[in-house]
Amino acid sequence: MPLTAESATQQIEERLKELRRLIHQIEDDRRRSENDINNIIRGQQANLAPPKLKALYKSGLQDAIQEEASTRTALEKIQEIRNIRNERRIQARDAGNKEAIRRGAHMKMVQISAQTLPLFVSKPGEKVPPLCGAIPADSSYIAKVGDNVAALVKSVDEEENWILAEVVQFLTRQNKYDVIDIDEEQKDRHVLSKRNIIPLPLMRANPETDGHALFSKGTMVLALYPRTTCFYNAIVHKLPETAKDDYEVLFEDSSYSDGYAEPLPVAQRYVITYRPTKKGSNGGSGSVSSA
After folding, report:
1. Which of 27-31, 87-91, 187-191 shows the lowest per-residue confidence on average (mean pLDDT)?
2. Which residues pair with 189 in a beta bridge?
3. Is 27 helix (H, G, I), strand (E, B) or coil?
4. Cα radius of gyration (the chain)
5. What percent of the chain has pLDDT over 90?
6. How much is the average pLDDT of 26-36?
7. 151, 163 in Cβ contact below 8 A?
């Protein structure tokens, strides 16, 4: 059933109310955890008996678990709000209500989308799921309507390029995607085989807990060239060190003696598994000098 503007507003308001409550709860949890840490430090300095010190550790652990649970619940509420807004945006697009956005503002939205991508922080022993960081989607995975993907399309001169696109629908019988170029100046529609689509990550990997879910230094990848909507061949030069950091990549560029340009930052969302085109081994148009 389509989500009306009224029901969307009501659902968002309900989640914002719950989010406000959770934020206050997280702050209370944080204060308790801070107090626990101070008590443990004082207990160690006073050489408390092991049973008493153990009790302090147990209390601190329980409060830390509660703080983590509250934080994860708050993040879930934020994601629910994003999903509701995205559903309304898709409905407006399908209804033909398209808002004109200047290219500069649109590029800013692409950047914000990467910065606000949910961060996956694994629990002890938890496996990093597909579409988190460098972990690819399962072979049977079907990207959802509204998801961003890298799409291999042909230009008028038959040259193949990887572009940033949005899923309009998946045509089950044809086993093909119907996608739209997110470039506001293009907005071209393409019907493409699954093999010409690469789903983008749905979560960022946390370098501090799940560094193995990032591409290794020296790995050949496809990366979105800054301030464009095209992916090009690149080599990972430096990995993110914190959740807020981007990769640094070296884009192929024939104007440089070694064939690669100076390092540029690219967000996790837009660094994906390398896949050669039919014409040679170039991603996008190959050299970024054409970007």
Report:
1. 87-91
2. 180
3. helix
4. 23
5. 66
6. 95
7. yes
